[in-house]
Amino acid sequence: MNVRTYVxxxxxxxxxxxxxxxxxxxxxxxxxxxxxxxxxxAGIACLVQGRAAYDGWRxxxxxxxxxxxxxxxLGFFLCHAWSWFAVMPKTMPFVxxxxxxxxxxxxxxxxxxxxxxxSLLVFVxxxxxxx
Length: 131
Fold this sequence. Notes:
mainly alpha; 3 helical TM bundles of succinate and fumarate reductases; 2 domains; two-stranded antiparallel sheet; 4 helices
């Protein structure tokens, strides 16, 4: 008796469902986060090697390819960050205000606003301390 086992097709199955497409986009965004971390790690390694190596690394960051990579990475960073904010109300205990449960959208908006506010504060402090 010849029994054939089912073999699930592995090409493109995730493209048919919008939820899976969003999931794959979030997963792809983590690759760009890793690549950017490696770029920063290379900068630290160049900083250890001396001023000439560090200046060379900074000059490489000014190339058109590097700027294009940073623009694409920024888009993926925003997507990655937004997915973390979107999952926040699903992972935390219910927050009640005045006896009513706080809406998920309010929690996501508060988290995003806190992140933007903290980033602006760091930017202003660093900019104000520049000579």
